[in-house]
């Protein structure tokens, strides 16, 4: 799950393509002279944001639904918790393989065309799985392949989304738009998981409906993104030329790719907050997502819709957390929270609490409360991290920095799938959550102790004139 200091980056550009911080007097004068133009620009920007929000929401709903229906399909075909873990691994493996090359791609190619290509590919992949299930030719090799394709296209889409938001959102609306995006993501969790489970079990023996529904949602998302229009020449909209395609291919796969990656890592290291966020969120993602895999592995006794409803509690918590985020960031009384660090530690210890609840036993209520807590904490930290990335990371390096950051964070999710399947098969569904809780508690104590020692050392060694 996925985010202050000296201003190092550039502000997000305005809808018209200019900087929201530059030329204030001239801009105000121009706005006064041409109020109708300003109104038209705001109307177009509002329509553009509506198209973007529609596309993002539908795409996220479809992706979240696939996150539960692919493992359920593996369990349906094989009855093996290990196979459930491997399908989850195939969905998340692309985060390890392609996040950094995709970051180079998104930094060099306009985000909108990339998002159109990915949505078309995801629609075709989901539709092919629906056909394979209908004609009873769906085997594990093909399921693993299509899950891998979905994960790969999602990586590109998620990075392009950040670039598109940066190009569309006025600076003063950035936190609100990120909170809206985060809310949409958790509404997707809240709705997609139970709906996916319901569709999966609607036609016994032929669970093709969720994949057909996903294909349709990706198609509508494609149509909504295609309807998005912008000022001619804006980077966010124009298609790349031949020379740009060749340069991008060389940057991604040629000899210069190492330099591009190193440049992204170097920029990330300039931001200690992002480094801390990367370590803490990677750890919590590993443990919480392993718990979800353990739960799904032992869910054969429950109806698929019940499984979806339990996991939807994470979406409820996420909606709550993302709704609170803008107010917390604006509140002068919560300056420490606003700095972000306290938010990250809150996420970590709330995850410890959530895993302790799940460790009481495999009861549905315990798992539901655990996902509710982690969803709320994760949403709060996600908005904080994403706002920092967009505001502070240098222009032209955002996607590379985000890709390095997310490589670690989502790489933990990738490892969580086989870890959860392994724990469920070796320790059993009942004992596995206790193992996860114990490990998370020890890691949280070590993180907290390390931070406390570092803070104390800095305070003791600070010169009097620095106080």
Give a verbal description of the structure.
By secondary structure, this protein is an all-alpha fold. It has a single domain (45-230, 270-454), classed as Up-down Bundle (Growth Hormone, Chain: A). Helices cover 79% and strands 0% of the residues. It is built from 17 helices and no strands. α4 runs antiparallel to α7. The chain starts with 23 loop residues before the first helix and ends in a 6-residue tail after the last helix. The relative contact order is 0.16. The model is unreliable at 1-42 and 231-237 (pLDDT under 50).
Short descriptors:
Growth Hormone, Chain: A; transmembrane; 79% helix; 467 residues; disordered N terminus; mainly alpha
Brief overview, please?
By secondary structure, this protein is an all-alpha fold.
How are the elements arranged and paired?
Elements: H1 24-33, H2 35-78, H3 81-108, H4 111-134, H5 140-168, H6 174-202, H7 209-226, H8 242-253, H9 257-269, H10 272-297, H11 304-311, H12 313-330, H13 335-338, H14 341-358, H15 364-392, H16 398-426, H17 432-461
Helix pairs in contact: 2-3, 2-5, 2-6, 2-7, 3-5, 3-8, 3-10, 3-16, 4-5, 4-7, 5-16, 6-11, 6-12, 6-15, 9-16, 10-14, 10-15, 10-16, 10-17, 11-15, 12-15, 14-15, 14-17
